[in-house]
């Protein structure tokens, strides 16, 4: 465990060196390094928010929680298609694992597929298990969740693909330790995807624009970099500022200046 802790400490230091506009690169770096540490074949990040509360949430199998964004370490067409299907079916056929995970909302937690947090026999009989696990040959999965605020949580999914080696208790302890020191980073992930403060998630184009807004580039330079007209780019900027509830780029940057707060 000492060697793993040393690797995690190095990873923490490396993530701090990424600029606010480099969050996507930072996420990929984190995924690749933590995958090496716990011997995972793939890692997925998911941002979830609670869209309902009170009686409405109590009537909902997922207690009002819904996945809003997902990012993949090794994105594949089938994987993305399956994730989109899972997102579409949240209202009609939510995964048993999702239902189990949100019951513990509000506290950091790490689970393994076979640690008893979900009825595995029942889960294997669902369509979700078939298209998420069987279709892509995922043999084991680890789920790590960090509350960002009362209505937002950050999920990391770790997969073993095409082999029967299962995640261990040591692996869960390693991941829990790594993420406990990275709430600031996960908060920034939520911000960059419009999930922590913005009322609606950012579109893929808005995510590209916001990364450049966090640099010193002018709107004209941003437009040139994206191949857009200045008018189109200005429209995106206005919509982004509106989503985040700030009046200008200074206010937007202020959200990121509290990244380790």
UniProtKB/TrEMBL annotation:
GO terms for molecular function: DNA binding. It holds the Pfam family GerE. GO terms for biological process: regulation of DNA-templated transcription. Coiled coil: none annotated. Residues 199-256 form the HTH luxR-type domain. InterPro entries: Sig_transdc_resp-reg_C-effctor, Tscrpt_reg_LuxR_C, WH-like_DNA-bd_sf. SUPFAM superfamilies: C-terminal effector domain of the bipartite response regulators (SSF46894). This is Helix-turn-helix transcriptional regulator.
